[in-house]
């Protein structure tokens, strides 16, 4: 299993936030924390916690994997593939657990062909 480089994860979070024109002050207000804490997370001087990770995922409308993949030694996805991955995730959110299980089963069968 690949180790995650959290310095790259923090930079990805900062990039996503900045691309959307959201300030560290807004993040701090939403998370009920301080601006220095937000800065420290984005610059890998404070440990990332699940609440912050999920917040950035929702704030930036990307999957948690999109954020964490920045810290893995994986080949980079091009923008189109990243958008498609995020779109698939958003579509899946609308299904019940049993519907998701059926869809995954069908996709695995289709993938084997």
Automatic annotation (TrEMBL):
<feature type="domain" description="HTH cro/C1-type">
    <location>
        <begin position="13"/>
        <end position="67"/>
    </location>
</feature>
<protein>
    <submittedName>
        <fullName>Helix-turn-helix domain-containing protein</fullName>
    </submittedName>
</protein>
<dbReference type="Pfam" id="PF01381">
    <property type="entry name" value="HTH_3"/>
</dbReference>
<dbReference type="InterPro" id="IPR010982">
    <property type="entry name" value="Lambda_DNA-bd_dom_sf"/>
</dbReference>
<dbReference type="InterPro" id="IPR001387">
    <property type="entry name" value="Cro/C1-type_HTH"/>
</dbReference>
<keyword id="KW-0238">DNA-binding</keyword>
């Amino acid at each position: 299993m690949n180790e995650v480089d959290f310095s790259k994860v923090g930079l990805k979070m900062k990039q996503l936030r900045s691309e959307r024109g959201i300030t560290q002050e807004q993040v701090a207000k939403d998370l009920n924390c301080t601006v220095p804490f937000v800065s420290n997370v984005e610059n890998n001087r404070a440990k990332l916690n699940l609440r912050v990770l999920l917040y950035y995922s929702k704030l930036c409308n990307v999957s948690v994997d999109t954020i964490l993949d920045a810290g893995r030694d994986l080949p980079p996805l091009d923008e189109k593939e990243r958008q498609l991955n995020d779109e698939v995730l958003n579509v899946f959110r609308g299904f019940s657990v049993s519907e998701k299980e059926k869809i995954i089963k069908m996709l695995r069968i289709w993938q084997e062909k």
